[in-house]
TrEMBL record:
The gene is ftsE. Homodimer. Forms a membrane-associated complex with FtsX. Belongs to the ABC transporter superfamily. Part of the ABC transporter FtsEX involved in cellular division. GO terms for biological process: cell division. Residues 2-227 form the ABC transporter domain. The keyword Transport applies. This is Cell division ATP-binding protein FtsE. SUPFAM superfamilies: P-loop containing nucleoside triphosphate hydrolases (SSF52540). It is found in: Cell membrane. The keyword Flavoprotein does not apply.
């Protein structure tokens, strides 16, 4: 599903964010990306959904060659990738249902399909009764559930989640993780960057650890491996 071959990323200021990364993520895997702040995790995640381009190397996501992908083709790539952010990034003037529907309107899905899929995913994330609520009327956990609904509404092959529990309390975080596990169980590949030691050590998925721009550890049923 995802493959990086000798990927380097150097920013204009000379910072080497990634140095010769090579890794594969199979379809339907659930992978944690861990490491100290500034290790290169966010760059790693951004490369997957083509927010950044590699300085050197090849990246393949769901049969797209990202290093050679023309700008006009990026929307087609992103139909296959759902992205979840730490800060939710909901549109404040749209209701929960409208925020979710917007992701389908962008790709010009038929109105009947938009209505049906929006209702389905809000039901899945447990927010069918909050469909007409605005982000300001929702708790942090509810806003993140809307963000997850938006990320999955187009049936993406991959979800990239960058610190999705970072702004949430522990109980709410576990609710979000159970939801992501259910989405993974239904067949979606999930790559999640996190600093949450308890979640990683409890759920025991594959762990890729990045330090100073290189992968230093890649373990099935791995542990977090860092002090809080």
């Amino acid at each position: 599903m995802i493959e990086m071959q000798d990927v380097w990323k150097t920013y204009p200021d000379g910072t080497h964010a990634l140095r010769g990364i090579s890794v594969k993520v199979d379809s339907n895997e659930f992978v944690y990306v861990v490491g100290p702040s500034g290790a290169g995790k966010s760059t790693f995640m951004k490369l997957i959904y083509r927010e950044e381009r590699p300085t050197k190397g090849q990246i393949f996501v769901d049969n797209f060659n990202l290093a050679k992908l023309k700008r006009r083709k990026i929307p087609y790539l992103r139909r296959n990738i759902g992205v979840i952010f730490q800060d939710f990034r909901l549109l404040p003037k749209l209701t929960a249902a409208e925020n979710v529907a917007f992701a389908m309107e962008v790709i010009e899905a038929p109105p009947k399909l938009i209505k049906r899929r929006t209702a389905e995913v809000l039901e899945l994330v447990g927010l069918a009764d909050k469909k007409n609520s605005y982000p300001s009327q929702l708790s942090g956990g509810e806003q993140q559930r809307v963000a997850i609904a938006r990320a999955i509404v187009n049936n993406p092959a991959v979800i990239v989640a960058d610190e999705p529990t970072g702004n949430l309390d522990p109980d709410t975080s576990w609710g979000i993780m159970r939801l992501l596990e259910e989405i993974n169980y239904r067949g979606t590949t999930i790559v999640m960057a996190t600093h949450n030691k308890e979640i990683v050590n409890t759920m025991r998925k594959r762990v890729i650890a990045i330090e100073n721009g290189v992968i230093v550890r890649d373990e099935q049923r791995g542990e977090y491996g860092y002090e809080d």
